[in-house]
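Support case: user asked for a sample of complex input and structure output to validate their parser. Sending the pair below.
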Amino acid sequence: MTDSPEDRLTRQFAFLTEADRLKTVLRGTTITDGARRENSGEHSWHLALYALALAGEAPEGVSIDRVIRMLLIHDLVEIDVGDVPIHSQGGQAHGSAAIQAAEAAAAARIFGLLPEDQGAPLLALWHEFEANESPDAVFAKSLDRVQPVLQNIAAGGGTWTEYQVTWPQLEARVGVKIARGLPRVWDWVRARARPFFD
Amino acid sequence: MTDSPEDRLTRQFAFLTEADRLKTVLRGTTITDGARRENSGEHSWHLALYALALAGEAPEGVSIDRVIRMLLIHDLVEIDVGDVPIHSQGGQAHGSAAIQAAEAAAAARIFGLLPEDQGAPLLALWHEFEANESPDAVFAKSLDRVQPVLQNIAAGGGTWTEYQVTWPQLEARVGVKIARGLPRVWDWVRARARPFFD
């Protein structure tokens, strides 16, 4: 709180330079041309665009600008923990207690690089996203779930084959969660994803 | 305007899938580990984080949420036109009339994929960014100019050598523009960039 203006800039740039590392974390999904894995930095950008384009699907009371901020920071913990694909290890790894604890420690470290008055609210915003209870978080999480499905559709099935995903698994691991925040979107996506599992 | 809800989703997803292509547009700057060129999708994400972290440097009246939206969409035209590095062709290519016209056509095409009531305001926001006159646009443009300098500092000089950039060129092409929207930031960055040109 008592940082000099120059100290504040030094901390802000330390955070921004550290954030750059998210561009080297690779996800389970490819970019739509199928040529390479998507990284979590560009994924976060794409999700923020999803929030903009699908703003009309948000329930009354959701703040799209707040959702965008959430999505911009939601994956920074992967700098320390890596991405855990939802279909990896038979769908068991994602959201385990060990990974949740590691992600919470990563969030404290990374947002702690910023001046305290900036890092603390961003850390709280990250925890809100993870808790998936507030309307903003539910909407943001649903976008995070639907984007990889669209990527796989655009890439002609993408990495579903590699992870040997079945249709019931996709419905259970992904569809239910998308439908929670984006019911009409899941109807649209479902009809276009289903044929890849025939 | 009379699109059905399903037609709207179809257009929104056409836009979002097209936007994915920005992840394949490579810039003149590397990521901070120097291992590869940065793409314009992850760059746009990084800039939105810059807006969040450096919000305190914005003059009174700037809307950070609006700046973030601007930065999220500012490079989409590169899907059609490609990135034009500021130091390429001796600093002459960037901002030429031919490129400006091509970018405006690209903006009309890409934002035109969305339903009209969403595409038109985003197109206007893109033009506002390009005009670099409103306080939001000046702040956003300054962030767009300062991030590559930080990337090059972090990468030990980065691509300045490759483009044979001199210190007076960096001051003229980049420093003046950063100083316009982020005077205190330019002081901080200048002191850390200068040694690479000794």
